[in-house]
Write a structure and sequence with these properties.
Helices cover 34% and strands 27% of the residues. With 265 residues, it is α+β, with helices and mostly antiparallel strands. Strands 4-3-5-6-7-8-9-10 form an eight-stranded mixed sheet, with helices on both faces. A five-stranded mixed sheet has the order 12-11-13-15-14, sandwiched between helices. Pfam families: Inositol_P. Mg(2+) 1 binds at residues 70, 87, 89, 214. Its cofactor is Mg(2+). Its EC number is 3.1.3.25.
């Protein structure tokens, strides 16, 4: 049955899975090995161990649910209306270098609609959670976006392609916004960017180069904290396209739209 009570139970299971996986990341931190999937696109033993931990917990609780995840995870041999979208380690580059800005991210779709999100930051022991229609929390405390309306007062974050060509449109968008924002950063974890936006620490985040597991959980958390999460042109968001503009207010979104959709000369 699809109702908020059953979704709350699913959230509790996802929170347990995220905490367990976060513990895995901390234990691996001093002893992992690193290989390269492609230049500057690192995968570690920790990613795989974390993902296996999450999958085991979710499959034991919901054996018929479908699964989609970063490290080659795709369980689609079911007619279930539920699909978990999992990133066992968002911010792998940060993790490898000991920069404490990485997390575990677990989202849930029901009939193709995002309805649940959990993000766990193991270095700060911060658990962000949301269920559609029930608000967002960090360690049980309610979250509300900053509500910042002016780009001149906004802290913005963008995800840029790893080892990308300087002529890539993503870099041009970054340059377009740079003179107008109070500050603009690239921090290396899309999921945490969205969690921080939901908690009022960031005001805007955008990217055109992500995967569904990077943003699925964070989208729910931002929306439930009162923020917006749409396509880069304010269209309806499709996380499977990997294009997102999330803001703390509609006014800020309106100010960003022409800058993000105009190619600088």
């Amino acid at each position: 049955m699809a109702d908020t009570d059953s979704w709350q139970l699913m959230k509790t299971t996802a929170e347990s899975a995220a905490r367990e996986a976060g513990g895995v990341l901390l234990r691996w931190r001093s002893r992992f090995s690193v290989s390269e999937k492609s230049r500057s696109n690192l995968v570690t033993d920790a990613d795989l161990d974390s993902q296996n931990t999450i999958v085991e917990i979710l499959q034991n609780a919901f054996p018929d649910h479908r699964l989609l995840g970063e490290e080659g995870l795709s369980k689609q041999d079911s007619n279930s209306e539920y699909q978990w979208i999992i990133d066992p380690l968002d911010g792998t580059g940060n993790y490898v270098h000991g920069f404490p800005y990485y997390c575990v991210s677990i989202g849930l779709e029901y009939q193709g609609r995002l309805i649940l999100g959990v993000i766990y930051d193991p270095t700060r022991d911060e658990l962000y959670s949301a269920v559609e229609g029930c608000g967002a929390t960090r360690n049980g405390e309610s979250l509300v976006v900053s509500g910042t309306q002016s780009l001149a007062q906004a802290m913005c974050v963008a995800s840029l392609p790893v080892a990308g060509d300087p002529e890539h449109p993503a870099f041009k968008r970054f340059v377009n916004v740079l003179p107008h924002a109070q500050t603009i950063q690239r921090l290396g974890s899309a999921a945490l960017n969205l969690a921080y936006l939901a908690s009022g620490n960031l005001d805007a985040f955008w990217s055109t180069t992500l995967y569904p597991w990077d943003i699925a959980a964070g989208v729910v958390i931002v929306r439930e904290a009162g923020g917006l999460a749409n396509g880069l042109d304010a269209s309806a968001l499709d996380v499977h396209q990997g294009v997102i503009l999330a803001t703390s207010s509609s006014q800020l979104q309106s100010e960003l739209l022409p800058l993000l959709n105009t190619t600088p000369q």
